[in-house]
Amino acid sequence: MIGDNKFLENFYNEYDEDGRLENNRLGRVEYLTTRRYLDPLLTADCKIAEIGAGTGRYSVTLAKEGYDVTAVELVQHNLDILKSKLDGSENIKTFLGNALDLNMLDDNTYDVTLLLGPMYHLYSEKDKVFALKEAVRITKPGGYILVAYCMNEATVIQYVFGCNQLKSVMDLNMITDDWKCISEPKDLFEMVRVEDIERLNAAVPVERIKLVATDGASRYIREYLEEFDDETFAKWLSYHFATCERQDLIGATNHSLDILRKVQVR
After folding, report:
1. Which of these, 202, 215, 247, lies nearest to 116 by C-alpha position?
2. How many CA atoms lie within 13 A of 1 on its CB side?
3. Which residue from 199, 207, 198, 217 is spatially nearest to 259, judged by alpha carbons?
4. Which ranges carry the Methyltransferase type domain (predicted)?
5. Centroid of chain to Cα 176
6. pLDDT one-digit tens code per residue, 12-62
7. Residues 93, 29: contact at Cβ < 8 Å?
8. CA separation (Å) from 242 to 42, 177, 214, 227?
9. Among candidates 212, 201, 214, which has minimal Cα distance to 262?
10. 2-150+189-262 belongs to which CATH class?
11. Taking the complete model, does pTM exceed 0.85, yes or no?
12. Residue 257 belongs to what H/E stretch?
C-alpha cells in the first residue's frame, strides 16, 4: 500500500517536488497541458479535491484563484511546503492522508477531483482500482475525475535503452518478455499502458471524456527545450497541443491524463 511506502516518503523528503512543474520547460509543458484541460471544467462555485496534492502547485494555485479546494497529501514534508504558501485568505482545507483511505471526505461532494500523483506509486491493480473508486466516490454525479499516469513505453525507450540500463533491469527481472515494466515500492514509480488504464476504468462508473498526453514528446527533447528562444518554445507548445490528443502517440508520452466523468448508477 502507498501509505506503507517508506521509500516514497524518503524520496519526497529530498526531491524538489515544489520546482518540478515550475522551474523548467518540461514541467511547464505538463502543467500548462493539465490546466488547458482542467480549466474548462471549472465553474465559479465548483468544489475541487486534489488527492496527492504534493507541494500544492495545483491546489494552492486554484485556491488563490478563488476556488473551494480540499487538498490531501501523503507526505508530511510536501504538506508543510504546501501550507507555507498559504496566507490565510484562501478557501482551502488540507489533510495528511492516503489515496486509499479518504474517509475524511464525504460521498458525492466535489465537482472536480484531481488524482495527479497517486497512480504513479500504486503497484497492484487492486490498489489502483481502490484509489480510483475512492476518487469517484467523493465526486458528484456528473462531476469530473482527472487521473495522471506514468506510461510504460517512454520508460523503456528513455531509461532502459536511452540510459543504458538494459542489463540491470533484465538482471533484476524488472521487465517482461513483452517489455512491460515491473515495479516495486523501492522503485518508486509504476508504469502502465493504455490497456491497463482501460481495465481500471471498467471497474468504476465513469465515462471517458479524453485521454491526453500531458508532456508528449517533450522529455525526448528535454535538453533542447531549455535552449529554445521564447518564440520557438511557443511553437513547440503549439505543436504539442495540436498532437496531445493523438491516440496513436499516447503510449509514448511520459505522463498521460485521463479525463473522466462520473455517471449515475441506476
Report:
1. 215
2. 10
3. 207
4. 50-146
5. 25
6. 888 888 788 888 999 999 999 999 999 999 999 999 999 999 999 999 999
7. no
8. 22, 34, 12, 22
9. 201
10. alpha beta
11. yes
12. strand 255-262
